[in-house]
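Pipeline run #58 for the internal structure catalog. This entry was flagged by the ingest filter as a single-chain record with no existing model, so it goes straight to prediction. Upstream metadata was stripped on purpose; only the residue string is passed forward. Reviewer on rotation: M.T. Logging verbosity set to normal.
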Amino acid sequence: MRKDIHPKYNKVIFYDASSGYKFLSGSTRSSNEMMEWEDGEVYPVIRVDISSASHPFFTGKQKFHDVGGRVERFKQRLASKNQEG
């Protein structure tokens, strides 16, 4: 195998500023911004726009669209066609 073709894989902190949630994981991305983690080590920080702590699906604040209207309209059309014939 050729050497030096793979990106460097390091531990980084992913930080969701909207919720204050952060987690430590491995990534090939890096950053100049550094933050101290719970273990006392300093790691690069990758800021993310959304995480499981702020995503509507995971927080239970997701809005469901009413699809029942389409089903009701279909049933009405079906019923009217059955009455005609």
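catalog note: The helical segments are 56-59, 68-84.
catalog note: The chain has two helices and four strands.
status: ready for reviewer M.T.
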